[in-house]
Amino acid sequence: MSKQLQIIGVTSELGAGTRGSSLGLDAMQIASLQYDRSFFLRHPEIRLETVNHHLYQETDLNYAKRLDGIAEMYNRIENVVNQSLRDDQFPLIVAGDHSSAGGTIAGIKKAFPNKRLGVIWVDAHADLHSPYTSPSGNVHGMPLATAIHEDNLECQNNQPEQETIWHWNEMKGPNQRVLPQDLVYIGVRSTETPEDVIMEKYEIPNYTVEEVREQGIAAICKESLDYLGDCEILYLSFDVDSMDPSISEGTGTPVPGGFNEEEAREIVLTLLKDPRFICFEMVEINPLLDKKGNSMAETAFRIFKPVYEQIEAQEQN
Ligand SMILES: NC(=[NH2+])NCCC[C@H](N)C(=O)O
Prior knowledge:
The chain is an alpha/beta fold. The chain has eleven helices and eight strands. Strand 7 (about 235-240), helix 10 (about 260-270) and strand 8 form a beta-alpha-beta unit. It comes from Croceimicrobium hydrocarbonivorans.
C-alpha cells in the first residue's frame, strides 16, 4: 500500500533549556540549498502553529518549565500526526526540542489505538524523567515518561506544583501508550539515576556507540527489530545529539562519544527498511549554538534527504 510522505514542522522549543532549536527546520532548509535546492519545493512541509511566545514570560513551573505551553503543543502534535496517519500518509516530523516526541507518540496511538507500538530512540539521552525527578525542569528530558506513563515516584526529588501535575497527567493520558518492553535505545550515554532505575527495572536495551561499532550496524539493527518482534507498528525518533559534538555543537545538550555522520545515517536507513515503521522524527537541531556556521543543519539534511527518498521508494513498491 503506498503512502504519501508528509513533512511536519514542529518549530517549538519550549522544552529545551537553551534557545534556538525552533530554528532547526529553517536552518535545514537553508542547508538544502547547497545539496538539493528544490527539495523543499518538491516536498513542502506543513508547519504547526507554536506557542513560543511563552518564552517572553518567566515560567512559574519549576520542575517542568513551560509545561502549560508544552501541553498545548502536545495536543496539536497529537492531532496533526493522528490526522496524517488516518489520511494514509507517512509523517516525517522535524521538531525543535525533543518533548515533541511525546505528542507524536500520542498521535500514533490515537490513529492506531489497538496496535502495539514499538519505539526506537536514537539519542544521547534517555528522556525518561518526570516532573518528580527531572534535574533541570526541561521537558525535553521527559517525553518517554509520558509514553510509558511513568512518574517514577520511587526516585522522587522534586515537589511539582499542582498546575504541573495537572498538565502532566493530561499529557500522560489515561493509559500507557508504549509498553516499557517495547522501547529500544541506541547511543544513550548521558542519564541520571532516576532514569537508570527505570531502564534497569524494565531491562530496556541500550546499544552503546561502542557496541554498535563492535557488533556492526546491521547486527544491532536486526537485534533491535527482532526484540520488537511483537510490535505491529514502529516509530523512530532521531535526536541529532546522538552524534558526536565534533560534527557540530549545534544542539542544546551535546555529549561526547557519539556516532559520526555516516554511522548515524546508516543506523537510521537500516532500521527504516522495516516496513512496520509508520513515522520518523528528527529533533534538536539548534543553529544558534553552532560554532561551525550551519554545520549541524547541513549534517541533518544529509541524513534527512536519503531518509525521505528511501521511504518514498519503499512506499512506491
Ligand atoms: N532531548 C534532550 N536533549 N534531552 C536532554 C535531557 C538532559 C537531562 N537528562 C535533563 O533531563 O535535563
